[in-house]
Each structure stands twice: as structure tokens, then as C-alpha cells.
Amino acid sequence: MTKPRKPSQPLLGDVDAPIRSKARRRRDPAQPHLLLDPMPARIDPCLALLKPRPPKGPQWTFEVKWDGYRLAVHIEQSRVRILTRGGHDWTHRFPAIKQAAAWLPVGTAILDGEAVVLDEQGRSDFGLLQQSLGGRGGKMSSDAIFMAFDLLYFDGHDLRNSELEMRRHLLEELVPAGGQGDIRLSEEIEADGDALLRLACEHDLEGIIAKDRDSTYRSGRLGDWLKIKCIQSDGFAIVGYEKSTASFGSIGRLLLAARKGDQLVYVGGVGTGFNERSANELRKQMDKRIIGKSAVDTGRKQNAVFVRPDLVAEIEYRAWTHDGKLRHASYKGLREAADQLAVYEFDDIR
Fold first, then answer.
1. 3 state SS of 174
2. Averaged pLDDT for residues 89-112
3. Calpha distance 103→95 (Å, rounded)
4. Which of 225, 233, 231, 239 is nearest to 200 (CA)?
5. Beta bridge partners of 253
6. CA dihedral defined by 261, 262, 263, 265, rounded to 10 degrees?
7. What pLDDT is recorded for position 23?
8. Would the pLDDT of 108 be above 60?
């Protein structure tokens, strides 16, 4: 059985709110009188477009922005699959989420959501998620939970052409509000966007997500979903590091790059946020990837070691300089290199 956990949303909502609907009874999608849609093997996710301020208008609904790994949970007749947004099978890494999915009262389904680990205040923490996964290398997490925020396929029916409001209604029947298991509902919050953003920032959350309740599910970053952040946090490719005998892992500063079209461009470095464990893990991974010449133009660097740009670091930062460099950057963790979509693209805001 799944073990009880901390409330998923103690800061922005009433965790004791009554369940809004009963779970559906399991229905056999093989019944011959039903017209069934083939279940997609994989769906490219709908991605949120970064905006500086929340949108206005009655068509927008809001949720907390979770800081974890974007996943799709595929519930099939004989198995459960958990896929990253890049299409990699991570079922083995989240056994508790897999078991919780198998217990849901549905024959077939595809849930869209985020795997997170919550801190003592109920906030998602990417660093804690990385610790629970034991760093890189395919280890399992027993602490991660899945925050479900969309339902793309349900009992033999493809829901992508249905409006968000209808998809959410079905999702809330399947994953009721207020649950404390390993799969929970990312609840909609009825509030003014500006007021909600202020509240989220006061409680040190990453930000909020706005969604057009009338929109269908469209893969890509098309503006149906928006993200508004309190503090910027994105993935950047590691292109090298500067040595320092006084720092953990002898890493004085990581050298970082972002995407600009089909190219990687240098965006500066980060020298804070490491602890002994994360620095040693980083150094071990980088030393396997040393190359003779930098993959991007970093300018003159003394005592620098360059690496293949296939490691992605999650970096928290406050702003950009006029020449396109990160300001007040801090290292949060190492993302999986296989998911190259995690690398920041300048087109997000420029």
C-alpha cells in the first residue's frame, strides 16, 4: 500500500476540502459496442510559455508550478509505463507511482503531470527529488509523488481534442482532490493571477501556471499554457568548469550554455549552490566527458576544463545581464542529459 504523505498544497488551499466526486468504476474498454481510439504510444507534451505577468480574463485558470520532472503515466491493459517528456522510459525509477497508477479505477489512461518530492512545508524541491533518485544512473525514488494536471486518454478515448475544462472534470473523477497517495491532483486555484503570484512568491514557490480553460491539448509551446515565475529556474548545458582547490570537488565555477536556434551559446557560469555530495557527483560525470576544445566560445578562461555539452544543470537565477549572461546564479541539481529539451532556449522570452 502507498504510505500517507504530507499535504501537497498546504500553502495555497484547504487540504481538508471535501472530495468533489466519486471515483469511477472500472470499465472494460474492450466492449464491442464502444467506438475506441487507438492509444498513442507517446504524446509530445504541451509546454508552458514563459511570461513576466499573469494573464487576465475569465478563460484563464491557475495552478501551482511544480519543480520536478515532467512525466506521462500510461495505464494500459497489462502494464503501466512512465515516460519522460523526451520519450525515455523511467517506469523503473518510480515504483510507487507505477503501483498507484495500477490501482486507479480505469482500464486505460494517459495522465500528464510532474514527479516531485515535497519539503516540510509542502513545496516541491528539485534538489530533494535528485537526492531521492540517488543522482544519475537510473536509481529508484521511493519519495517522489506524481502531481497529475491533465488527462489525455481515458478508457479507450483520445481526449486531446476536448477542451481543458472537460479533461479536468474527468481527471478529478479519476484522481479526486485532497488525496494523499503517490498520485495526487494538481488542483486548480480560483484567484486573481496577480494576487496568486504574490502569494506564491511570499511562500518561496517557483511560480504559477496559467491555462486557457477552452483550449484543446496541443503539443509544443503555443501559448495555451503560460508559466509565470517568482525566481527564474531553467536547465543549461554544462560546457566545462574552472578548477579551484578551495571548493567542493575542486569545482570553482561551472561554465554554462543555452540554446539559440540550432546553436549553443555561452551564458556565463555558476559557482554557488554545491555541497560536497553534488560537487563530487558532478566532477565524476564531467571527468568522463573531457574534450580538448570548448564546444562554445567562452572567451579567455584560465585553468578551465572543457566537457562535451551533454550534461544539463538546473540553475536558479535572478536576471540576465545586457550581454546575455546569467546574474546571481545558483546550482540546484543535475538533470538527465538524455532529455535535451530541458536546455533553456532564448526564444522563451526574447
1. helix
2. 96
3. 13
4. 231
5. 242
6. 30
7. 43
8. yes
CA-to-CA separations, 329 to 19, 119, 125, 184, 194, in angstroms, rounded: 41, 22, 17, 32, 25
Q: What is the DSSP letter of 220?
A: B
What would the grid cell of residue 342 be?
Answer: 530541458
* Average pLDDT over every residue of 272-276: 87
Choice among 6, 51, 65, 284 that is catalytic: 65
Beta pairing partners, 50: 227
- Joined grid coordinates for residue 88: 525515455
Can you spell out the DSSP letters for 13-31? S-TTPPP-SPPPPP--TT-
In the Cβ-directed half-sphere of 176, how many Cα atoms lie within 13 Å?
14
65 is catalytic: yes
In order, the DSSP letters of 113-169 are EEEE-B-TTS-B-HHHHHHHTTSSSS---SS-EEEEEEEEEETTEE-TTS-HHHHHH
The beta strands (E) that lie in the chain are given as: 49-50, 60-64, 69-75, 80-84, 109-116, 145-154, 157-158, 183-185, 207-212, 225-229, 232-243, 251-260, 263-270, 290-291, 304-307, 312-317, 319-320, 326-327, 330-335
The b-or-e profile of 129-159 (16+ CB within 10 A means b, else e) is bbbbbebbeeeebebbbbbbbbbbbbbbbbb
Domains and CATH numbers, the chain: 49-229 (3.30.470.30), 232-348 (2.40.50.140)
Closest to 23 in 3D by CA, of 148, 150, 176: 176
Query: 181 with 2: CB under 8 angstroms?
Result: yes
Phi, psi of 193 (to 5 degrees): -60, -45
pTM over 0.85: no
234 in Cβ contact with 314 (< 8 Å): yes
